[in-house]
Structures are given as structure tokens and as C-alpha cells.
């Protein structure tokens, strides 16, 4: 029986074309020392990514977490305060990096489906007062993982940006799944990061590259980010070996994210009628099942599903996360729906 892995879209394997792209670049002698800017594949990737994101420049980084921390640290100073959504990845799941590495003070605020309302942002920005930390930045997560792959729309982004700019705040977008939002809205990704100072995109999630993220912004930001990447040990040598699959991810894998979104909707349709289950229609590739009103928690559900070769993470308390991805097809979705439905209705 096939194992169906819904733990994350990070489990996606590289495509054959990605592996071929590495070999082709190697045979063409294109790899070089990227620490001194001599890997032509990395340079091509960075130029392409900057263009797609509508920014002056871009930089290859090892991971989403590294891209976020570089973006935060290189645009703020120790002791500054950063406004984050209380369930955002930068606040909850990056090992406290902004505080431990940058001396930055996170100010978590409650969003609506992952979106920090402009009036909320306005109300938490500190006045210029020696007693208070300087509020220096706000982070937007798009799509928002923990809210259920929710999309922050361009007009919502601009409303937040205008409050931020009125108060001299930088705006960073954690766009680990920015292309999921762009594909679902059928708009270019750059529309979602207009007027934003820095953005991080992951190519290693639904887009299936084995490794790597990109950060993008102004020439000045990327200049500073380059030094910060070095400080954090992120300077890589023949990095074209990871950049080649990333180019394939950007050029060939974006449009197919729609399949993951369609599969998420299919799963939702098959589960929405289960009594006492809390479930919202997915906007992209992530669905949470709220188990609060059922006599099972995520850990036990994950153990029951594992008996049927279906994998989810068990650590999400009473909310079970299912992440649709390229390794899961329609038939798999139907099997998952049958098994989950069977377990939850038999309680
Ligand atoms: C919203 C979000 N931001 C950032 C990251 C970090 O990415 P990485 O695992 O590459 O460090 C993730 C990873 O799952 C994520 O979901």
C-alpha cells in the first residue's frame, strides 16, 4: 500500500527535470564559488527571482528560517520591536531566532485568519519614548500556515503597508507559500509584495526543490543581507547544485500548485459533513480539522492514520493539519477521506 504523506509540502521529492538540470549545469561548467559571486546558475536564479517578485535584487539562502532571520536582522537594530501575528512561523517556529540572534523583541498580536488588521497594527506601534522599545518592523505571513493556508489579498497587504509606512516601519513578508496565494488568486506573485521592503520565498515546499529559499528587496537591502548571510554561515560554494533545481521550481512548478488546492477542496468536501468536526473550506493547500468537540486528539488521530499508511504530524493539539502536495493524488485524497471519515464517525 502506498504511504500517503500529508505532514507537509516539504516532503516533496525533486522532479527528474530538477536532477537533469543539475547534471546539465555541471556538464556546462557553470558551477563556481558563490561566496565570491562566481556561480552562474545562482546568479541566473537570483536575477529571475528578483524579476518575478518585482524587486531590484535577490539572494539565495539555505532555508525559509534563514531567509526570515537575515531579513529581520539586516533591517533592524538590537532592542527593536517587531510586530508579528501571534500564530506566525517567525514567532512560533523559528526557535526564537529574532530574539536570540538579533536581540529583537517580538510583539505578537492577534490576526484575523492570519491577517494583522491595520487598526491593530496602528494600536501597538510604540510612540517615541525612551521607556519604550522602537517598533521597527511588521511581518506578514502569506499564505498563513497556522491559520490554515489563508491568503492575505493585495488590498489587505497595501492597507497594512500604508500604516507601516506612516510610522516608518519596515515590512517583511514571510512568503514561504507566496506562490500558493498567487496561483489561488490568479495574479502575479509580485502583486502580493508591492511596496514591501523584503520578502522570503521557499522553493523547497510545494514547488518541490530539494533545498533553498530566496530573499528579495532593494539593492541596499540585499547588500546588507549578503553580509548577514555570511555571519550566519550561509555563504555556500558551488551552490548552483541547489540553484539549478530552484530555477526549474520557479519556471515549471508554480502553475501545478492548483492541483494541490483542488485536492484540498476535494478532501474538504468529503469531510465537511462529519458531525462535530470543525473544518473550514481551504483557500490553498492546507486544511486543519478541529477536533475540540470529538473524543480524539491529533496525536491519537495521527497514530490511527499511521495504521493505514497515512501520515500527519501529531503535535498540533486539537487541530490536525493536512498539507496537500505533489506526492498526493486524487485517489489518495479519496482514500484519506474514507479512512478519516471512518475513524471520526466511529468515535
Ligand atoms: C510559513 C513558513 N515560514 C517559514 C518556514 C521555514 O522554512 P524552512 O523550513 O525552510 O526553514 C516555514 C516552514 O515550514 C513556513 O511554513
How would you sum up this structure, described in words?
By secondary structure, this protein is of the alpha/beta class. The chain is built from 13 helices and twelve strands. The strands form three sheets. A seven-stranded mixed sheet has the order 2-8-7-6-5-3-4, sandwiched between helices. Strands 9-10-12 form a three-stranded antiparallel sheet. Strands 1-11 form a two-stranded parallel ribbon. α8 (178-185) links the parallel β6 and β7. α2 packs parallel to α10 (240-252) and α11 (257-271) packs parallel to α13 (330-345). It starts with a strand and ends with a helix. The mean pLDDT is 98. The structure holds pyridoxal-5'-phosphate (PLP). Pyridoxal-5'-phosphate is lined by residues 63-65, 89, 141, 145, 174, 176, 202, 204, 213.
| Ligands (ions, cofactors included) | pyridoxal-5'-phosphate
Write down the domain tally: 2
Give the termini separation. 25 Å
Q: Largest sheet at a glance?
A: 7 strands, mixed
Rg to the nearest angstrom? 21 Å
Q: Tell me, what is the CATH class of the largest domain? A: Alpha Beta
User: How many beta-strand runs?
Assistant: 12
Mean pLDDT: 98
Strands of the widest sheet, in order across it, are 2-8-7-6-5-3-4
By DSSP (H or I, 4+ residues per run), the number of helices equals 13
Structural class comes to alpha/beta
Q: In one word, what is the shape? A: globular
Q: What do we call the CATH homologous superfamily of the largest domain?
A: Type I PLP-dependent aspartate aminotransferase-like (Major domain)
Strand content: 15-25%
- Ranges where pLDDT stays below 50 over 5 or more residues in a row are none
CATH level 3 topology of the largest domain: Aspartate Aminotransferase, domain 2
Q: What would CATH call the architecture of the largest domain?
A: 3-Layer(aba) Sandwich
Helix content: 40-55%
Order of secondary-structure elements? EHHEHEHHEHEHEHEEHHHEEHEEH
Amino acid at each position: 500500500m502506498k504511504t500517503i504523506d500529508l505532514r507537509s509540502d516539504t516532503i516533496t521529492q525533486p522532479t527528474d527535470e530538477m536532477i537533469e538540470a543539475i547534471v546539465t549545469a555541471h556538464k556546462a561548467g557553470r558551477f563556481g564559488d558563490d561566496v565570491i559571486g562566481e556561480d552562474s546558475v545562482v546568479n541566473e536564479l537570483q536575477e529571475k527571482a528578483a524579476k518575478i517578485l518585482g524587486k531590484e535584487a535577490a539572494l539565495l539562502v539555505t532555508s525559509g528560517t534563514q531567509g526570515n532571520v537575515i531579513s529581520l536582522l539586516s533591517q533592524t537594530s538590537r532592542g527593536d520591536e517587531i510586530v508579528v501575528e501571534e500564530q506566525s512561523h517567525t514567532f512560533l517556529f523559528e526557535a526564537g531566532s529574532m530574539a536570540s540572534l538579533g536581540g529583537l523583541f517580538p510583539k505578537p498580536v492577534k490576526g484575523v485568519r492570519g491577517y494583522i488588521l491595520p487598526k491593530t497594527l496602528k494600536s501597538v506601534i510604540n510612540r517615541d519614548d525612551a521607556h519604550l522599545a522602537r517598533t521597527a518592523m511588521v511581518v506578514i505571513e502569506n499564505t498563513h500556515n497556522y491559520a490554515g493556508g489563508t491568503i492575505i489579498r493585495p488590498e489587505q497587504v497595501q492597507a497594512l503597508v500604508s500604516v507601516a509606512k506612516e510610522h516608518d516601519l519596515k515590512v517583511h513578508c514571510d512568503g514561504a507559500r507566496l506562490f500558493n496565494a498567487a496561483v489561488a488568486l490568479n495574479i502575479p506573485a509580485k502583486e502580493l509584495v508591492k511596496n514591501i521592503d523584503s520578502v522570503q520565498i521557499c522553493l523547497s515546499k510545494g514547488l518541490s526543490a530539494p533545498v533553498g529559499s530566496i530573499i528579495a528587496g532593494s539593492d541596499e537591502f540585499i547588500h546588507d543581507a549578503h553580509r548577514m548571510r555570511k555571519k550566519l554561515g550561509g555563504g555556500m560554494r558551488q551552490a548552483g547544485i541547489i540553484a539549478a533545481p530552484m530555477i526549474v521550481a520557479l519556471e515549471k512548478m508554480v502553475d501545478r500548485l492548483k492541483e494541490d488546492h483542488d485536492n484540498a477542496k476535494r478532501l474538504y468536501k468529503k469531510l465537511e459533513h462529519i458531525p462535530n468536526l470543525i473544518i473550514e473550506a481551504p483557500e490553498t493547500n492546507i486544511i486543519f480539522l478541529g477536533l475540540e468537540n470529538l473524543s480524539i486528539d491529533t496525536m491519537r488521530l495521527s497514530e490511527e492514520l499511521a495504521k493505514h499508511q497515512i501520515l500527519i504530524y501529531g503535535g498540533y493539539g486539537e487541530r490536525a493539519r493536512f498539507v496537500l502536495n505533489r506526492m498526493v493524488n486524487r485517489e489518495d485524497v479519496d482514500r484519506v477521506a474514507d479512512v478519516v471519515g471512518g475513524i471520526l464517525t466511529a468515535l
